[in-house]
Amino acid sequence: MEKAESIPIDAEKIRCEFFNFLRSKRSAEVPLTVEHAQPVLNPLYQDDKPPTNSEAMESCPKANVENFKKLLKEENLYLYTEAGEQGRLPLLILSMKESDNENRPAVVFLHSTRKCKEWLRPLLEAYASRGYIAIGIDSRYHGERASSKTTYRDALVSSWKNGDTMPFIFDTAWDLIKLADYLTQREDIDPTRIGITGESLGGMHAWYAAADTRYKVIVPIIGVQGFRWAIENDKWQARVGSIKAVFEEARTDLGKSTIDKEVVEKVWDRIAPGLASQFDSPYTIPAIAPRPLLIINGAEDPRCPLAGLEIPKARARKAYAEANCSDNFKVVAEPGIGHQMTPFMVKEASDWLDKFLLKQ
């Protein structure tokens, strides 16, 4: 295989190929339809233990708004992105009740594995207080799109067995493209000021949703990595461990005694075709240029090793320099931090989104 750093980037071609790939995997397309929903009183978390409050999210900068809770507007909606049960995308949207008719910036927030949109509420409230329309979603097989604590795990195994769905990243990327259809049609949102961010799995969702240029500012947190690099450099174990059941199933089916890099490669090719090849970070990260992109990782994160970002980072810097907007690209690695989102990361993301989306 030709070395990634030597292959020229055609951003438009990469985006089109990815979009056409996602479309080819859809069930019947449906008209863009929105329905009202009810607030979720008992959110479903698929963790072994119910999660506690997130210090990182609680630390997000907030505006001091008198009577904030009374002035907060909450919308619970379903957006239909394709036919079938998983084609119903649950939305939680928070904003301030304001009398002026000026449209506002929007930010989409994406949760981590086994969480749900309700987990994101501290972030949604903080951004709403600062004048944003803040949108949280349930990714595929999570939250309202799950029926038990094993729904996501079972979907991954089914994807390996049947190859007819892409629950790891790509099906939710399609949802986010359809979400952009909806957000750009809303009269209260400025379509030129829509950002997207997420944590871990949500960071990967934000990264791949950036194939849609309607997302103007992108901030993946502990999500960007080099999948091919990890296979070639024997650094795949931590990422595999986060969704181990599907790899164990594949190991058994392939007659292996242990999970090895052949198993890893075959699983990625089956459940997310192109993830470790043409849609990997050396190609898709530079394709985001010239839009503002902030990548935030932990310097010691075994799931997103910094060494695996050297090629995509170098190629992205080149792409942004060629577009005369080098300041629109930044990589932050917090020292001493593994795979966790921290208050520092939340503040960095907040400052970056404010810089490019809020009117100064």
Automatic annotation (TrEMBL):
It comes from the Eukaryota. Keywords: Hydrolase. This is AB hydrolase-1 domain-containing protein. It comes from Citrus sinensis (Sweet orange).
